Amino acid sequence: MKLTLRVWRQRDADAEGAMSTYEVDGISPDMSFLEMLDTLNEELILKGDDPVAFDHDCREGICGACSLVINGDAHGPERTTTCQLHMRSFRDGDTIDVEPWRASAFPVIKDLVVDRSALDRIIQAGGYITAPTGAAPEAHATPVPKPDADLAFEHAECIGCGACVAACPNGAAMLFTSAKINHLNVLPQGAPERETRVLDMVAQMDEEGFGGCTLAGECATACPKGIPLFSITGMNKEWLRATRKAAKR
């Protein structure tokens, strides 16, 4: 395959960025998108040019590092992570635009790499449970109804990639935050921090400068792990419940 790549290049957060055009040839349809970028970078290095900076880690679709907007879609045309997107999803001769996540809360560090530490701070605000420091408890000591366990697992699949933010027209982080809140709040182990968790994490989300949610639904469409849109309504119910309870104290 021969492709034309239009890639966002930006030296640092303070520099002006622009799209640069590159031609790459000899691309196998079985390559992942990141392997295709590796091929481009090898050619740039051989020419003495600066390679394109992009995030990656596990390349197995579980770490969430591979954050790219491809032809206007977070993670590209398939509902998967960029590292699991293969070049057979494109055609020989295609022109492909590659950009970083676009959100005010995700400042560009260099080229396609953005700072997503805002998501880490949301988790730090309340994404944990109280844990005794003694011996490990018996696994079956705390029964969990299967519907609750299934719901918790569904939300725990969130890998924190930020595709929901990049896809949202408002740059909202509601789907990410709701997944991190709901997967703990539905379990008995998360009960001690249930109210403070939702209040603190939502407050931190707002402090980070993410946009407001208008339920456009683009977040759930772009999520590579299929976090459902009703996760947001679940979080909103938790927040209202916690707010009313706090007002009565």
What this model shows, in words?
The chain is elongated. The mean pLDDT is 95. With 249 residues, it is an alpha+beta fold. The chain is built from eight helices and seven strands; from the N terminus they run E-E-H-E-E-E-E-E-H-H-H-H-H-H-H. The strands form two sheets. Strands 2-1-5-3-4 form a five-stranded mixed β-sheet. A two-stranded antiparallel sheet has the order 6-7. It has helices at residues 33-46, 117-126, 146-156, 163-167, 174-185, 194-207, 218-222, 230-247, and strands at 3-9, 18-24, 69-70, 73-74, 95-99, 108-110, 113-114.
Helix content: 25-40%
Strand order of the largest sheet: 2-1-5-3-4
End-to-end Cα distance: 66 Å
Summed up, the helix count is: 8
What fraction of residues sit in β-strands?
5-15%
H/E element sequence? EEHEEEEEHHHHHHH
What is the number of strand segments? 7
Layout of SSEs?
Elements: E1 3-9, E2 18-24, H1 33-46, E3 69-70, E4 73-74, E5 95-99, E6 108-110, E7 113-114, H2 117-126, H3 146-156, H4 163-167, H5 174-185, H6 194-207, H7 218-222, H8 230-247
Parallel strand pairs: 1-5
Antiparallel strand pairs: 1-2, 3-4, 3-5, 6-7
Helix pairs in contact: 2-5, 2-6, 3-5, 5-6, 5-8, 6-8
Q: Could you provide a short overview of the structure?
A:
The protein contains 8 helices and 7 strands. By secondary structure, the chain is an alpha+beta fold. The protein has helices at about 35-45, 115-125, 145-155, 165, 175-185, 195-205, 220, 230-245; strands at about 5-10, 20-25, 70, 75, 95-100, 110, 115.
